[in-house]
C-alpha cells in the first residue's frame, strides 16, 4: 500500500501511526497538496490527504475511511477500537474530540494565512472557542481515565488524542497553552516516545520503519 500526503497533517500522521500499530506494511510518499498539486492529482484527482493506494490500486481518501479499511485487513491480529459497544462509544467520543480539535486548528492556521485585513475576527473567536472546548473535553476525559500509551495497548483514541495535541503545540501553542491540559500533554508526550510515532514524526519528512 502507498500512503500519500505529508506528515505535517495530523490526518496523514494518524494513518501512518495506526497502520504500523496494526502491523500493515506501507510505503509513504510525502506529496504536498499545495506545492505538488499536479503530482497529487495524478494519484488522486480530488487531491485530498491522506490518500491510500491499496494493493489492488483502489484509491481511498479520508483518514477515518482509510482506517476503517485498515481495520478489516488487520482484523485477525489486532484492532485499535474496542469491540464492546460501551467501550467503543467512549473511544469514539475521544476520537471525535481529537478530530474536532484538529479541524479547528487547521481552520485557524488557514485563516492566519490570509492578509491581516481580510481575517475575520468573529470567525477566529468562534473557531478558537470550539478548539478550546474540544481540548477541555479531552482533558476532562483523560484526567478521569488516562489512556494507554504503549505500543501493544494504545488504541485509536490514544493515537488520535496524542497526535491532535502534538499538532496544536507545534503550530498554534499560544491558542491552547500546555498548562491548560496537563493530562493530555502527558499522554501525548508518552505516545510520541513510541517507535511508531517516532517513525512518522510531524513535519515534511518521510515515514521510516523502525521495526
Comma- or semicolon-separated keywords:
211 residues, mainly alpha, Glutaredoxin, Glutathione S-transferase Yfyf (Class Pi), Chain A, domain 2, 2 domains, four-stranded mixed sheet, 8 helices, 4 strands, 54% helix
Describe the structure.
The protein has 211 residues and is mostly helical. The protein has helices spanning 10-21, 37-43, 63-73, 85-112, 121-144, 156-171, 182-192, 195-198; strands at residues 2-4, 27-29, 51-53, 59-61. Strands 2-1-3-4 form a four-stranded mixed beta sheet, with helices on one face. The longest helix has 28 residues, at 85-112. The model has no long low-confidence stretch (mean pLDDT 96).
- Using the coordinates above, name the CATH class of the largest domain: Mainly Alpha
Average pLDDT score: 96
Label the overall shape.
globular
| Estimated structural class | mainly alpha
Tally of alpha and pi helices: 8
String of helices and strands = EHEHEEHHHHHH
* CATH architectural name of the largest domain: Up-down Bundle
Low-confidence stretches: none
Report the sheet with the most strands, covering strand number, pairing sense and barrel closure. Answer: 4 strands, mixed
Number of strands: 4
Instruction: Please give the oligomerization state of what you see.
Output: single chain
Amino acid at each position: 500500500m502507498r500512503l500519500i500526503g505529508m506528515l505535517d497533517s495530523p490526518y496523514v500522521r494518524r494513518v501512518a501511526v495506526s497502520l504500523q500499530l496494526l502491523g500493515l506494511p506501507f510505503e509513504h510518499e510525502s506529496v504536498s497538496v499545495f506545492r505538488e498539486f499536479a503530482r497529487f492529482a495524478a494519484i488522486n484527482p480530488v487531491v485530498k490527504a491522506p490518500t491510500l493506494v491499496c494493493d489492488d490500486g483502489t484509491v481511498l481518501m479520508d483518514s477515518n475511511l482509510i482506517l476503517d479499511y485498515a481495520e478489516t485487513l488487520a482484523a485477525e491480529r489486532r484492532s485499535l477500537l474496542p469491540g464492546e459497544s460501551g467501550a467503543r462509544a467512549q473511544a469514539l467520543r475521544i476520537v471525535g474530540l481529537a478530530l474536532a480539535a484538529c479541524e479547528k486548528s487547521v481552520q485557524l492556521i488557514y485563516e492566519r494565512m490570509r492578509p491581516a485585513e481580510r481575517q475575520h475576527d468573529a470567525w477566529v473567536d468562534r473557531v478558537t472557542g470550539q478548539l478550546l472546548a474540544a481540548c477541555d473535553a479531552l482533558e476532562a476525559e483523560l484526567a478521569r481515565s488516562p489512556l494507554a500509551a504503549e505500543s501493544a495497548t494504545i488504541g485509536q483514541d490514544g493515537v488520535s488524542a496524542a497526535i491532535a495535541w502534538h499538532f496544536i503545540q507545534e503550530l498554534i501553542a499560544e491558542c491552547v497553552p500546555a498548562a491548560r491540559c496537563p493530562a493530555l500533554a502527558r499522554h501525548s508526550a508518552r505516545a510520541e516516545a513510541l517507535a511508531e510515532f517516532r517513525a512518522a514524526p510531524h513535519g515534511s519528512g518521510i515515514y521510516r520503519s523502525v521495526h
